[in-house]
Design goal:
Blueprint: H1 7-16, E1 28-31, E2 36-38, H2 40-47, E3 60-63, E4 66-69, H3 71-81, H4 89-113, H5 118-143, H6 167-179, H7 183-189, H8 194-204, H9 207-215
Antiparallel strand pairs: 1-2, 3-4
């Protein structure tokens, strides 16, 4: 089952060992293709003005008496708070840039899903477009190691940046594991991406994340 925009933030807190309340509105998906869904409790709270601090949008994060909204802002806040934005300004910028590439890939995929010839377009995406994007991205992840004075070969790389888990690793994992319904298509697209496969493997073997994934609530978001 695909996961929504709040899952990356949950994974960050899980990896950091941070306790949090994981509140989710009940949602019934009628049609994913058109985002047609029933969400009465959410609609009622929104109409009552209870979600004004996030402009009526989800997800949001309660911090003390305040609210942080917008999924990417929440992710960066949590990653910074839990030391997952690298050890230098340069590493932080690399992590941020890699996350933005993943956002670009997601945007491109959503455009494919909106095409009139949707079925044919999706076949082309998983057969050609996604593999090309991932191979180029994998090359970038390894090539930028020169920038960081790292000589680890691609087959041994475990992290997108530096020598520890970062936001980039979790975003990459979430994209390749949770974002797509076509799991087989994604796995095939990653065939020639040694760094990406190692990152996904490394994140999936993190004990805290592994336990979360095995026991997490099965909801659309």
């Amino acid at each position: 089952m695909r996961k929504g925009m709040g899952e990356t933030s949950r994974l960050i807190m899980v990896a950091a060992g941070e306790k949090f309340e994981d509140f989710r509105y009940p949602i019934k998906i009628i049609d994913w293709a058109t985002y047609n869904m029933e969400r009465k409790e959410f609609d009622d709270d929104k109409a009552a003005g209870k979600l004004w601090k996030s402009l009526g949008k989800l997800p949001f994060l309660n911090v003390g008496e305040g609210v942080i909204s917008q999924s990417k802002a929440i992710e960066r806040y949590l990653a910074d708070r839990f030391k997952m934005m690298g050890d230098t300004m340069e590493e932080s910028a690399l992590i941020d840039s890699y996350c933005e590439y993943i956002r670009d890939f997601k945007t491109a995929y959503q455009a494919v899903k909106r095409k009139e010839n949707r079925e044919e377009a999706l076949k082309e995406w998983f057969k050609t477009t996604l593999p090309e994007k991932l191979i180029a991205f994998d090359k970038l992840l390894f090539g930028n190691m020169d920038f960081q004075n790292m000589v680890t070969p691609p087959s041994d790389r475990r992290f997108a940046v530096g020598h520890k888990l970062s936001l980039a690793d979790i975003v990459i994992y979430s994209f390749l594991v949770d974002f797509f319904d076509n799991k087989e298509g994604v796995a095939t697209a990653c065939n020639n991406c040694a760094v990406l496969k190692n990152i996904v493997k490394n994140v999936s073997e993190n004990q805290k994340i592994k336990e979360w994934v095995e026991n997490r609530e099965q909801t659309p978001f």
